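We close this part of the discussion by returning to an individual protein. In the encoding step, the backbone of a single protein was reduced to a row of integers, each denoting a local shape. The sequence in question and its structure tokens are set out directly beneath this paragraph.
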Amino acid sequence: MLKKPFFLPVVCLSLLLIPLIGMQFYAAIQWTLFDFALMGLLLIALGLSIRWVIIKTIPIQRKRAFIVLLLMAFLIVCAALAVGVFGTPFAGS
């Protein structure tokens, strides 16, 4: 299945290259070091939790359901942090 233990978290962290490259071309993208650190922690947690679900869950339907739930939770947290969808005090706007 997954031979390398940290393959999925490394793939998730490589997603941080998207805003890093975008900052070079667009003035609208303004991430600080804190933004990269926070998103890095969220992506590592997502990658490790998906890997844990893949290893520990037996039926394929449960794996898919848990992974979809993890991705939905991740996207909700990202939306709340990025634009303040829910009006939380820790939102970016």
Q: What stands out?
A: The chain has a mean pLDDT of 82. The helical segments are 7-13, 17-25, 33-56, 60-83. The radius of gyration is 15 Å.
